Amino acid sequence: MITEYGQYMPIAGSPGQLANYQEYAADSYPAKEVIPFGAAVQLSADGTGIVPVKTGGSPIGIALSRGIHDYTTNADDQKYLVGQPVPVVKRGNIFVVAGGDVTNGSTVQVDTATGKFIASGGIDFSRAVFRANAVADALVQIEINLP
User: Fold this and answer.
1) Where do the DSSP E strands lie in the chain?
2) Gap between the Cα atoms of 63 and 145, Å rounded
3) Using CA atoms, how far apart are residues 144 and 7, in angstroms rounded to an integer?
4) Is CB count within 10 Å lower at the N or C end of the chain?
5) Lowest mean pLDDT: which of 64-68, 110-114, 128-132?
6) Would you call 121 exposed, middle or buried from its count of C-beta atoms within 10 A (0-12, 13-18, 19+)?
7) SS3 26
8) % of the chain residues with pLDDT over 70
9) 133 backbone dihedrals φ, ψ, rounded to 5°
């Protein structure tokens, strides 16, 4: 039994980081727009890549973090650029940024204006639930199980 989260896996430090070592599934797509780590994504209009979720869109997963950051210069490198391959988590536990107060077990939605994850008032992220309580702008674990 794991009694201390940081004992076996680093504590969450950024959106898009896997939350545990349980099995997960990810597909790879080219970025058609800049995609921040931990962003909910949807297929592009032509179906050949992905973009951040838009109003009326349908999320297909979450952009996995590469876990790379240049702390020396504090570079703006927590995103995928246009044309880069993006691993998209479709099943598993992953950290994202809460857009408001969320409760463990509640269903997940995406605020298209901010790209953050909320409990209501956004685009439905079917088959996903929050796995912890959180407040706005805090990292929160969600579990997704998309086909």
Assistant:
1) 25-30, 35-36, 40-43, 50-52, 61-63, 79-80, 85-97, 107-110, 117-118, 123-130, 139-145
2) 15
3) 24
4) N
5) 64-68
6) exposed
7) strand
8) 84
9) -85, 150
